[in-house]
Here is the input.
Amino acid sequence: MNYAIIGCGLIGKKRLAALPAGSKLVVACDTDLSRANALVEIAKTGRAVTDFKEAVSDPEVDAVIVATINSTLAEISGAAIRAGKHVIVEKPAGMSVAEIDGLIALQIRHGVAVRVGFNHRFHPAFIKAREIFDSGVMGKLMFIRARYGHGGRIGYDKEWRADPKLAGGGELIDQGIHLIDLAGWFLGEFKKVEGHADTYFWNMVVDDNAFLDLRTAKGQTAWLHVSCTEWKNLFSFEIYGRHTKLHIDGLGSSYGVEKLFHYQMKPEMGIPDTKVYEFPGPDESWRKEVLEFEKDVQMKRKPDAGLAEVRAALQIVETIYQNQK
Here is the structure.
């Protein structure tokens, strides 16, 4: 497939590196032309532009990757859909549920594939956890407990993520939306939403910590905490079934080696049988996500992490923020 990448910063570079063999960059687009040119130089193919409308209208482009700041995700994705292009858009895909609803209407009208960048689903520990879950050995799920946090950096409160007009919120909409998506992937729809978001450390109007208590219609709970005052980067995701506990720890790099602990209860209970899976290799989640996206397009199927899924997650984010007012 031929791609346009719009937004040529860190994520745009990751997306370029993840393009499958046989796919290529046709257009790199950024408001800073030097960054677009840099991406073209890395790819050794394509051309650089500053106008996203020019990028999405290029007849050689089959699919558009939108890797810009939150405030422009929906506008650019909408333009790509109207141009008949398939789309990968970074989470949260828009600043509000209303923006996502607009994209859903466009997707239905134009019949293209739109996948949202929930690459955590493609980390090997989550792939293995989902395999165990789907096997039925866990029994009925009871609850999920998860934490995700980093420590920011000097000047973090001056970056675009600290501006609600550009980001739409703070840590909750940034890393929190990943935890919400993953929890819903296992537990399903959340009918009751409680929690709060606060700013404890950083000098910014958006939240640096958020605490969520989400419950399904059956009473299953997801208890989630996201933070950018974690200081030592941390990722911990625990799934509790009646017969099994799965614990994903680490995401590689500064979050530590990615591991999955599988605790299987015995009929007589006591100390469970334990298996530990380690995944020390490089992060392949971005590549696997793009491969799945290309299958979506080829098979004309609905992406399993698309606009409906991000809408559900963003609805929870909006509810928490509205409760703060």
About this structure: The radius of gyration is 20 Å.
